[in-house]
## 1
Amino acid sequence: MKRRRLLLLAGLGGITFAGIVFSFNIRKLRFFRKQLGELKEFLFHKKELNNLLSTQTVKSDISYPKTAPIFRFVSVADTGTGKMPQYSVARAMKHYHSKFPFGFVVLAGDNIYPNGEIEKINDVFEKPYEYLLENKVKFYACLGNHDVRTDNGEPQVKYPNFNMAGRYYTFEYQPIQFFALDTNAKKEDWEVQLNWLEKELSNSKAPWKIVFAHHPIYSSGKYGSSQKLISTLTPLFKKHKVQLYINGHEHNYERTRPINGTTYLISGAGAKQRPVGRSEWTEYSTENFSFAAFDVYEDRLIVRGINIWNRVFDAGVIQI
Ligand SMILES: [Fe+2]
């Protein structure tokens, strides 16, 4: 009897000891996982800082006009990873918004990697931009090549927070009319879309016209300039005085000087990055994670490139 009790006590003691060891190991495991996460974040930011210091001369900010802008907006693209760099850019957007409130974001495609799966919307959009959404900042999206891999992007067209009135659509914030395009469209659909754009541009009374889409027209990045888009879109831009084209697809920032009256701005380093070169029309290019911010005046648009260190690394003026 005594022996059995002894064995029972020893057994219970053994189980308790194993439990303590087990919970200690779990705690240790959680601790190391946290440490690893912080180390990864540190190395990521260190690499970013080194990139910035070694490859770029940070320009000083240009001076503000005396009056406040009519409104501000920002643009970002190629965002839909849900990973750390997206959060870093989102944090910089939040910081900028707290200093210089803006009303909306032009979201230039590849909103959900890798296949436009709408069920990931919380992880790749609602959580990273939670602060902006809570502060009533609107997003106007267009479709990227990754977005159309699921049901041709239709779930995103219907998603309310993307404010898409169709695959291609237009909206106004006086004095600007925006035109969102679907540059994934093939042949007949592209022709129909071009006709729609031509009609909308010629009917527009807005002094400022901005077109945005996912694919680049002029680019010094991986994909380079698109002869198809140069031949189909730029004659319309010239004829109807489109001052700015915004896009992504290239995972970098690049601002051109005006080409036949249109400035081309790539703001595709919203979550991924890739080296970028320069062309004779390049005003500024960098692979560093960033978004673009715009101050709208009657006679000019001030554009700024802002990195995850909240620094303005590029600033330029677009005249009407
Ligand atoms: Fe893309």
## 2
Amino acid sequence: MIMTVQSALYSRRRVLQLTAATGLATSALVRTTSVMAQTASAPLKIATIGAGNLGAAVGTLWVKAGHEVLFSSRNPDNLKGLVDGLGAKARAGTVDEAIAFGDAILLAVPYEAYPQVGADYAEKLKGKVVLDAGNANRSSLFAETQENGVGVTTAKYFPGVRIVRAFNAANHRLFTSNANRPAPRMAVPIAGDDAEALEIAKTLVSSAGFDPLVVGSLKDADKFAMGTEGFGHVLPAVELAAKLGVLAPANL
Ligand SMILES: NC(=O)c1ccc[n+]([C@@H]2O[C@H](COP(=O)([O-])OP(=O)(O)OC[C@H]3O[C@@H](n4cnc5c(N)ncnc54)[C@H](OP(=O)(O)O)[C@@H]3O)[C@@H](O)[C@H]2O)c1
């Protein structure tokens, strides 16, 4: 679903209410509602933290869809080949530059790094929508994610950040090869606790060439965590919804 201008304007009216309710800085909320307003008509500014297999693959899909994308890592010079090949809408930078640039961010670093990346950047990311693609399975945080949930664990390391689980549930090659295929498109499961962030994530997933399937809250992201039966499917939304035991979107 594309966010309508009307709903974006409605969201602007909610800024003051949300500021009071959440304690978030007004500037962060204005930034978010600005993203929602832009989704109706204009390309977005998107950044990736991490530009390896997954960050490069999904970021490339957004560039091809007409968005401006800043790919970041600790070594942005190494990303020159990637961005040069993608043209004027792609650039490389540091993580700080990514956070300043992106209206929305894709987090695509090894899960092992989450405590450090969170400690370094959560404050700067506060109020931003972050699509969290990390899988914890091969990290020392796996036990924690098993106990508390992977989305909940990410949120713990990124307090105040509007986390939506997305793009974690398939190999990057499957995203590249299945994006924008003829209907029915491949579904990408997403989950989060923040309704407005979920709407923005839906727009970004759709723009990358997939049908977003909202599975539920951050805790519900465990239904499509790596290693579960909900992981790794290349299915239309109706079939993936049946597999995950959730309602398929009415428009598909
Ligand atoms: N590969 C897939 O098919 C796939 C699919 C779904 C989900 N995922 C998840 O996506 C995440 C990334 O996987 P990947 O396969 O893309 O890994 P990768 O190819 O090793 O790339 C990791 C990226 O993160 C950067 N990075 C590492 N530590 C960092 C830090 N502390 N701060 C900033 N950037 C850092 C790396 O660049 P520098 O070392 O230069 O900083 C690199 O750009 C993982 O959590 C993985 O579970 C991967």
